[in-house]
Amino acid sequence: MPAGTAFARGAATLAANAWPLALLPSAWHYQHPLLFSLRHGESALLWGLPLLGLLCWRRLPGLARVLLVGVTLLLVWQAVDYRLQREAVLAAGPAMRTVGQHFIVGYTDVEEVRELAAKGLIGGIYIGRRNVRGRSLAEVRDEIAGLQAVRAQAGLPPLIVAADQEGGRVNHLSPLLERLPPLAGVVDQPDPGIAAQAYGARQGGALAGLGVTLNFGPVVDLRPADQPAGDMFSDIPARAIGSDPEGVTEVAAGYLDGLAASGVRGTLKHFPGLGRVDRDTHLHPARLSETPAELATDWLPFRSLAGHAGSALMLGHVTLEALDPYRAASHSPAVVRLLRNEWGYDGVLVTDDLNMGAVYSQGIGKVASEALNAGVDLVLVSYDPRQVYRAIFAAAQALEQGRIAPARLAAGGRRLQALSRPPAGAAAT
Fold first, then answer.
1. What is the CATH number of domain 95-420?
2. HSE on the CB side for 117, CA within 13 Å?
3. Catalytic residue (choose from 221, 231, 324, 352)
4. Peptide linkage before 422 cis (omega within 30 of 0)
5. CB neighbours of 427 closer than 8 A, spacing ≥ 6?
6. 282 catalytic, yes or no?
7. What are the start and end residues of each CATH 3.20.20.300 domain in the chain?
8. Which of 32, 102, 172, 282 is catalytic?
9. Whole-prediction pTM value?
10. Among the residues of 262-363, which ranges form H helices?
11. In this predicted model, what pLDDT tens digit does every residue of 410-419 receive, in sequence order?
């Protein structure tokens, strides 16, 4: 046999075996949240190629057949496992409802989230771009009001309705709501605090008119001098108020007061701060090696404003090595103890989205369970909302197995009740 022919046959055999092998990682990570926007194409490809292979079964080499069977079984297992967990959650047993009230979830299907809301399986909803795109203000407002009516009919507390409307780069409800410039723009005003309060009132009025009760802002991470090389999505230099902690504190305080006057609570984010982080937590784990003493200046806005106007505090997916080298702040008991015991903060703690790459690879259910057991009050699952079934299922199992302390959930429930009431200083309606 000529060498060229042998090489061609070898290459063909390798290719025939390689394509099922290439499918294995994708099948293992089937419906990964970072591929949410490609979900329909991903499903068609991962299910279509094995079916095509089965049609060409006799032409495939032996190894390719084994791999193809493995890919198919893996996909079937993933689909069945997800369906069983979803059905268990929707059965709405006591443990599911107990942990479910601590979840805030995005949605693409209002009927799906309506069922979760009616059964007491979530504590809140997140409104983002996909909920407002191509719709009128009245349509979105009526949809939110309808979900709140479902809660009232079921005798359940009102849903927390959260949004991410910072101004500037992050205006997830625009153009439905007015697109405001970055909050940092008020720093150069003659009285930044008063200007920030007016900004917050303007933004808060628009949010309240839609039915939003909690805004994920302001960003009080200090602005870094340079854009981190590995930052693709966070873009803290563009979103931060400034690099002077006292100036940031003054502006953020005014902004929170403005929101509160409109009946909307704010959220200080992203503790322990992203200003020094050189990796994007949307994609990768990130760590801070500095001690709490070395971070005291960075933390001044967080510590000074914790609880201001009844605001919440968001925990980022950054590992604070000096306190807990094994877990990110979002699910670290040591970080929660710092905030609760040393700072005396008794407000709501909310995680950043558990769909983010920094923590999702550890298992969304594992991280959600650890966050609740650490004393975090709200777990956010927004980008890929259907991951919430896995998270609630695992957390309910952890509660039943004694890996989540019921007393921590009860304390969190008390704080969530306080969050659902209008903030002090809100204008009467």
1. 3.20.20.300
2. 29
3. 352
4. no
5. 261, 262, 263
6. yes
7. 95-420
8. 282
9. 0.88
10. 296-305, 333-337, 357-360
11. 999 999 999 9
